[in-house]
Amino acid sequence: MTAAGDDTPGRPSGADGHTPGPSATDGTTSGHPPKDAPLPKILCDTAALAALDDAPAGALWRLAESGRQLDANVVRLPPGQQVGTHREPDLDVLHLVLAGSGTLTAPDGTRTLQRGTLTWLPHGSTRSLTAGPEGLTYLTVHRRRPGMQIRRPDSGAPDGS
Fold first, then answer.
1. pTM, two decimal places
2. Which residues 6+ apart lie within 8 Å of 105 measured at CB?
3. Which residues of the chain have pLDDT under 70?
4. Per-position DSSP letters for 91-115, written without gaps between them
């Protein structure tokens, strides 16, 4: 239920307008988190990045915090440029358009992308992106890829096992 008493999907459900979560403690009886607990951090101003009309193609920002479980990027495609057809076999990706417009093409058709469009790209899906006349700036978020491991050719197990 939302604070307003309805079950509208996508609306916060806590009395303060946020989805309720676990208490602010770490489960200790003191109610205080440990001194080395991670803290929230403002990372960048996506509106300022999206407003860079002359930004180069590619990643304008990358999540680089140590210990993270996610990867995230703000990417700019200049007008008419593409991310060619590809398939991500392992990771679901959230794709949020920050500025501009474009199209997402998948085997079942083409979808229009505009500022504010949030798209789920499930793992295993095939897609391509094309920037519109003003270019396309977007945020992607997905689970962090595990680090590369060296495996022995005979067992498939990582060395040192």
1. 0.70
2. 85, 111, 127, 128, 129, 130
3. 1-30, 146-161
4. --EEEEEEEEEEEEEETTEEEEEET
